[in-house]
Amino acid sequence: MSRIQWRVRELPKTISQTIRFRWQYGKQCIRSLTYNHHMNQSYASDVCMEPIFWFVDNFTHLLGPFFVFAVICLTTAVVTICYWIGLPYWWNRNRYMTVFLMIVGHWLLLNVVYNFYKAASVSPGYPPEKELIAEAVSICKKCIAPKPPRTHHCSVCNRCVLKMDHHCPWLNNCVGYHNHRYFFLYMLYTTIGTLFIISFGFELGYGVLFLDEAGWKEMEPLQGHPVRFNLSGHIIPVTEMNDYEHDGMAPAEHDLPIPHPNDRTETIHGAILFMALINVATLFALGSLTAWHSTLITRGETSIEAHINKSETKRLAAMNKVYRNPYDFGSRQNWRIFLGITRKRTWWRHVLLPSSHKPEGNGLTWLTYEIASDNADEWP
Ligand SMILES: [Zn+2]
Ligand SMILES: [Zn+2]
After folding, report:
1. pTM across the whole model
2. Where is the Palmitoyltransferase DHHC domain (predicted)?
């Protein structure tokens, strides 16, 4: 009896109550039909992201060649503009400085081109196929094959990659065991290169973009001319003698020469604007990426391992334990191993100059800090 009374009391009386009642009722129906005990927020977001993952997996390798072509075109354009505008500008100012800039600029360019070519063309390294891998620590569910430590499956390349860092569309290649150093040095030298261009091109760029907007000063040098101010306050050369009326007293009426930017100055203006945008954008994008990868190298981890190590640290902290990355040998040794400055190699020959030396080990077996501390003699 009491239940019926409760129900009667709950029944909607007004239109708004009816709508609210219907809405709640519909919601309950849908929930009861779609209820899943395993549903949670991260699962739902994964499902929503699935189309993006599908697109990336299926189209990244198709777009790869276009990205590589874009990098080559942009680099070529930047270098061409340096030769065309930057070099003559410096040559007119200071010849010794120009020689110095030529040497530094070409050293940077050599490293950028070499490391880009190597990062894009050297295979990242794959686990041996149809072979017993003694070092395997797990099985790849997609390849149905054994996986050595630090190996991960790349869904774009559709295969397992040794010490995989990430798949890079700009290189159209996976970054892994064999080409990780080339990838990092490419980013580092490109960042330094853009900083170099911005530093030594700043005055020139600022002058063209903000001071004499049309660049008209270049049309007619001021040296050797009498000058006067025009209406906009610019100093302009007086190229013609004043004409006087026949009485020789009153100056004749005539129009002042109005500077018009010609096609060449417009092109220079466009080129400088392009240089400013592309170099500043690259400096921010690659600069932050280089800084992030430097942090990872200092910690002795890859981009993928950074996520794994973070969640492991959290998981063990909840159990009151401290997690330690097995491949972290201290920042100095981590950098030495990453750059391959082991076995009497030197940083000036193997880092400052292009070098094709191979990384330490075979990519299948990995030293951990525990083994390394026990076998100090085997340490490269
Ligand atoms: Zn795999
Ligand atoms: Zn890949």
Report:
1. 0.74
2. 138-307
